[in-house]
């Protein structure tokens, strides 16, 4: 049984509008630099511990990848690290940038 939930882009957008969420983008550096969700933090093995230590584990965390597949494993990992409300973004950044281009940074 997974300890995370999947979230549709529209629901993620609502959380982001309310400024109640952190977004962990697990894509590679070049993809992140080419574009990412506003306020997203790129997380990899180099800064994972620092990211976990800096987060309020009681606030929602959305994990974003390319298409919403890799983020599921990462979301499960974050849930196992004590995050109480973890989501994997359905469709990933590729769906997000089409749905909400004004909420992307380049």
TrEMBL record:
<keyword id="KW-0808">Transferase</keyword>
<comment type="similarity">
    <text>Belongs to the GlpE family.</text>
</comment>
<dbReference type="InterPro" id="IPR036873">
    <property type="entry name" value="Rhodanese-like_dom_sf"/>
</dbReference>
<feature type="domain" description="Rhodanese">
    <location>
        <begin position="17"/>
        <end position="105"/>
    </location>
</feature>
<keyword id="KW-0963">Cytoplasm</keyword>
<dbReference type="Pfam" id="PF00581">
    <property type="entry name" value="Rhodanese"/>
</dbReference>
<comment type="function">
    <text>Transferase that catalyzes the transfer of sulfur from thiosulfate to thiophilic acceptors such as cyanide or dithiols. May function in a CysM-independent thiosulfate assimilation pathway by catalyzing the conversion of thiosulfate to sulfite, which can then be used for L-cysteine biosynthesis.</text>
</comment>
<dbReference type="InterPro" id="IPR050229">
    <property type="entry name" value="GlpE_sulfurtransferase"/>
</dbReference>
<dbReference type="InterPro" id="IPR001763">
    <property type="entry name" value="Rhodanese-like_dom"/>
</dbReference>
<feature type="active site" description="Cysteine persulfide intermediate">
    <location>
        <position position="65"/>
    </location>
</feature>
<protein>
    <recommendedName>
        <fullName>Thiosulfate sulfurtransferase GlpE</fullName>
        <ecNumber>2.8.1.1</ecNumber>
    </recommendedName>
</protein>
<dbReference type="InterPro" id="IPR023695">
    <property type="entry name" value="Thiosulf_sulfurTrfase"/>
</dbReference>
<dbReference type="GO" id="GO:0004792">
    <property type="term" value="F:thiosulfate-cyanide sulfurtransferase activity"/>
</dbReference>
């Amino acid at each position: 049984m997974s300890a995370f939930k999947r979230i549709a882009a529209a629901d993620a957008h609502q959380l982001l509008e309310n400024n109640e969420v952190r977004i962990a983008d697990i894509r590679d550096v070049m993809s992140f630099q080419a574009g990412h969700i506003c306020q997203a933090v790129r997380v990899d093995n180099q800064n994972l511990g620092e990211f976990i230590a800096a987060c309020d584990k009681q606030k929602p965390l959305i994990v974003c990848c390319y298409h919403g597949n890799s983020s599921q494993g990462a979301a499960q990992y974050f849930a196992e690290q004590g995050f109480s409300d973890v989501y994997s973004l359905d469709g990933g950044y590729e769906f997000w940038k089409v749905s909400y281009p004004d909420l992307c940074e380049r």
